[in-house]
Design a protein that fits this description.
two-stranded antiparallel ribbon; 55% helix
Length: 164
């Protein structure tokens, strides 16, 4: 099995204190955090943010993590088209719609998206869901600024073409 490595082609985030702040947020709301919100749902939400933004680093990481959490590969494959799939519960659908609304800053529909959550989640779960999404949006933008570029670790880089 291949291992993926990333190189930063733009900035080195450790040069400012912002990276440490982002790491603190990840500790509280990232994929290793202990939350009230159900783990598989939180991971589906993280992956959906990565798809919407799109963040190469986050797509690789959260695809691996969501599969490790036990979400069926077929469900993961349909995540980008969740509206056209019957694999997602009503609660998951509400959370995914809210995820997209918060990630894309849909002010027009946002209150309705929030209200739909109250049918499935308690106030703490809703607050955690928002925090997970906000945390992911910070990380997707940080990784974009870094220029986090994936490659397979067990393969040699492509040779550069040189004139003959």
């Amino acid at each position: 099995m291949s291992t993926t490595e990333f190189s930063n082609r733009r900035i080195q985030p450790e040069l400012t204190t912002f990276h440490a702040l982002a790491e603190e947020m990840a500790h509280s709301f990232g994929y290793t955090a202990e939350l009230t919100l159900e783990g598989k749902l939180a991971e589906l939400v993280r992956l959906r943010v990565a798809q919407v933004t799109p963040c190469s680093y986050c797509l690789v990481l959260h695809t691996r993590v969501v599969l490790e959490c036990g979400v069926p590969v077929e469900k993961v494959a349909h995540l980008a088209s969740w509206r056209e799939s019957e694999m997602f519960s009503a609660a998951e659908r509400a959370a995914l719609a809210y995820t997209e609304g918060l990630t894309t800053y849909d002010l027009k529909a946002f209150q309705e998206l929030h209200d739909a959550l109250t049918e499935h989640f308690n106030p703490t779960e809703i607050a955690e869901l928002a925090a997970v999404i906000i945390n992911m949006n910070v990380w997707t933008r940080l990784k974009l600024a870094e220029g986090a570029t994936p490659r397979f670790a067990d393969r040699n880089p492509e040779p550069s073409s040189s004139p003959a």
